[in-house]
Amino acid sequence: MADLPHRRAFLKLLAAGSASAAATASLLAEDKPPTPKTYAFKKVGDLEIKADVYQPVADKNCPVVIWIHGGALIMGDRKGIDGDLRNMLLKAGYAVVSIHYRLAPVTKLPAILEDVQDGCRWVREQGPDLFHINPDRIAVMGGSAGGYLTQTTGYRVTPPPKALVSFWGYGDITNEWYSRPDAFYRKQPLVSKEEAERSVGDMVIAEPPAKNQRGRFYLYCRQQGLWPKMVAGLDPDKEPKAFDAFCPIRNVSKKHPPTLFIHGTKDTDVPYQQSVDMAKELDSKGVEHELITVKDGGHGLVGVKREVVLATYGNVVKFLGTHLR
């Protein structure tokens, strides 16, 4: 946020090539950060895919929130949950499970979605014994690409979560905002294909190395309008129907979980209209939903005062309380 030095604009992180999910995670909480317990919920070859579990004080039969980090599916990690949001959820009695998934472009979208589904299944099946959660009281939330993945759990996870919260997420990955060169990102010096490829390498990973330049690959994708091709491995112009299974807006039904959308009107990374369109689609199917519009908020609510963000998080807790308790 503009008045807090550790809330820097997402764009600056991309320009520097450092793009962990901490781009939108604050370290605002005055309380000492809780120490999570880390589990490997899945193994692919030699790669462990992990989850961090934070437990509330009253940790018996508690509801649980699964957090999915953002980063365009290319960057970020499970530590990217905002400290204020995490602590607010813990104080309200929710366990918080922040999950990893394999990162694009080496891992393509279908496998990333499988990781998310497997993470949700693991929480439901193993969570009651490992960290005392109630498997019938699960919500999923995430920011940006994590908001997109959150929306996919509404139709790809069985049984579906009881509630979803999408922070500045999106429901359509074939729209021109993602599949055409972006004027906002092209204001920066263009990233070459060679630099972009070097920045991500060829290893299958679920979290970026300590020193990484993966943000350069994302910037290249946005400057060239190549994100759907690079991440899904499909061409939305030549194979539009192939994206049906990957676009939440094409999969809304009356069975979709109640959903809360949060989006700033000045988001230059994910258009505010993405949340508006998803809300309209849920409305057309009679699905309970809310859209919190944050005036003048940038991506990750950059530029918004802290008290506004905290009030927004308070509304998230109220929304969860309505649908999980």
Description:
The protein has 325 residues and is of the alpha/beta class. The protein has one domain (10-172, 241-324): Alpha/Beta hydrolase fold, catalytic domain (Rossmann fold), CATH 3.40.50. The chain has 10 helices and 8 strands. The chain has helices spanning 10-16, 83-91, 109-131, 145-156, 176-179, 193-200, 214-224, 227-232, 272-284, 306-324, and strands at 37-44, 47-54, 62-68, 95-99, 133-143, 163-167, 259-264, 289-294. Strands 1-2-4-3-5-6-7-8 form an 8-stranded mixed beta sheet, with helices on both faces. Strand 7, helix 9 (272-284) and strand 8 form a beta-alpha-beta unit. Helix 2 runs parallel beside helix 10 (306-324) and helix 6 (193-200) packs antiparallel against helix 7 (214-224). The longest helix has 23 residues, at 109-131. It is globular, with a radius of gyration of 18 Å. Mean pLDDT is 91; it is low at 1-30.
Describe what is shown at a glance.
By secondary structure, the chain is an alpha/beta fold. Helices cover 34% and strands 17% of the residues. Helix 2 (83-91) runs parallel beside helix 10 (306-324) and helix 6 (193-200) runs antiparallel to helix 7 (214-224).
Note the main attributes of this structure.
10 helices, eight-stranded mixed sheet, Rossmann fold, 325 residues, alpha/beta, globular
Question: What fraction of residues sit in β-strands?
Answer: 15-25%
Q: Output the CATH class name.
A: Alpha Beta
Shape: globular
The share of residues in helices is 25-40%
* Count of discrete structural domains: 1
Name the structural class.
alpha/beta
